[in-house]
Amino acid sequence: MVKLVRKTVQAKRNKGIFEVPRDVVDVLLNDTSEKLTDDLIADNIIDMMIPGEDSVPVLMTLATKYLSECPPALQQLTVENIKLKKLKDQLGKPLCWNDYLSLPFTQKVITETLRMGNIINGVMRKALKDVEIKGYLIPQGWCVFANFRSVHLDEKNYECPYQFNPWRWQDKDMNSYNFTPFGGGQRLCPGLDLARLEASIFLHHLVTQFRWYAEEDTIVNFPTVRMKRKMPILVKRVEP
Which residues form a coiled coil (predicted)? Predict the structure, then answer.
C-alpha cells in the first residue's frame, strides 16, 4: 500500500503542480510552507485512508446493527430526526452545525455505540520514568497497552455493560477516564467531532428516508472490530 501511494505521489509531482488542486495529494504538493517529501505526503494520505475506511464506517455499521436489535431506541431516534427534518423542510434550509448539536438522543446512540464497539481497542504508551499505578510498578522504558474495551465493558463502570442502552447516558458524564473511544489528554483524537458529525448525518438520513432489515451477524473484536459477514442488509426507501 505504501509503495502504491508513494508511486502515485511521485507521478503527480512529475506531471507538475496544478494551480487549482484537484485532490488532497495536489493540496499537499502545493504546500510550499512545509516542503513535504513524497514519503511524508504518502504517510498523510494513508493516515486519511484508515479513518475513512475503518473508524467512521464501522461506527455507522455498528450503530445500524444495535438499532436493528433495539426497537425502542430506533423508534426514539426516528421520532427525533423526523421532527428535525420536518422543521428544516418548512424553513427550506439544509442541515447545519447547530442541528447536529440539537439531536441529544442521536448523540446518546453514537456514544453507546462507541462504548460497546469502538474500533480502536486501545493505545500503546511508553513510560518515560518509573511509574507506580495501584501498587504496580511500570519501569522506565517499558511500553504499556491501555485497553479501552476492558474499561468500556467493565461492570464496575457500566451496569449490564454488554447491553446496548443509549439511555444510560442520560445523566452520565462522557468526559471521564471510563469513556475513552477517542483517547484522551494531549493525544485526544482531533477527529472526535468530525466522526460524531458524520455518524449523525448518516443516521439522520437513514431513519428519515429509509427502512431496513439487517440479517443476523456477529461482531468480531480482534484484532479490530469487524462484522463477521459485513452485515448484509436490505434497504428500502420510504415514500415522502
Answer: none
Helix (H, G, I), strand (E, B) or coil at 129: coil
| DSSP result, 202-213 | HHHHHHHHEEEE
Report the percent of the chain where pLDDT is more than 70: 98
Domain ranges, ordered by start, for the chain: 37-237
Residues 6 or more apart from 59 whose CB is under 8 A from it?
110, 113, 114, 117, 119, 195, 199
CB 78 within 8 Å of CB 207: yes
C-alpha cell at 105: 438522543
Tens of pLDDT, residues 206-222:
999 999 999 999 999 88
Task: For residue 95, give the C-alpha cell.
Answer: 442541515
What cell was used for 37?
A: 517529501
Q: DSSP secondary-structure letter at 186?
A: G
Cβ–Cβ under 8 Å, residues 110 and 81: no
Beta bridge partners, 136, equal 133
Question: For 37-237, which CATH superfamily applies?
Answer: Cytochrome P450 (1.10.630.10)
Cα 15 to Cα 11, 123, 187, distances in angstroms: 6, 40, 37
The neighbouring-strand residues paired with 131 are 138
| 229 Cβ contact partners less than 8 Å away, ≥ 6 residues apart | 215, 217, 218
Res. 1: pLDDT tops 80: no
Residue 25, Cβ neighbours under 10 Å: how many?
19
189 is in an annotated binding site: yes
